[in-house]
Design a protein that fits this description.
Length: 103
């Protein structure tokens, strides 16, 4: 990888269909992670304060913010959203590049 940028390395790895599939499966988790961190910072809240407001400890929130949202349940996400004065929205959308199955 010497001499390449991270973006270049990822672009090269994305040529592998298995890697690309795994990468895109993380899109939702990364989106949640970015939105929670952004909302917490906009609110001027520390991890300690947010953790206290949702009834947990700071290390738990830190693990979530470091990529542990795949283990978070809807109730935890709802508590975080409420504490940050946000609304949690969950919706189903058709997958991109998905061919519908018709019986």
């Amino acid at each position: 990888m010497k001499g390449r940028t991270l973006k270049g390395h990822i672009r090269e790895k994305m040529k592998n269909p298995e890697f690309a599939k795994a990468w895109h499966e993380l899109d939702m988790e990364f989106s949640i992670l970015e939105n929670v961190i952004r909302a917490r910072k906009r609110a001027g809240m520390t991890q300690i304060e947010l953790a206290r407001r949702i009834g947990t400890k700071q290390p738990v929130l830190s693990r979530l913010e470091k990529g542990g949202f795949d283990k978070a349940n809807i109730e935890t996400l709802r508590k975080i959203a409420n504490a940050l004065n946000h609304e949690l929205v969950v919706k189903f959308e058709p997958k991109k590049n998905h061919v519908p199955h018709h019986p």
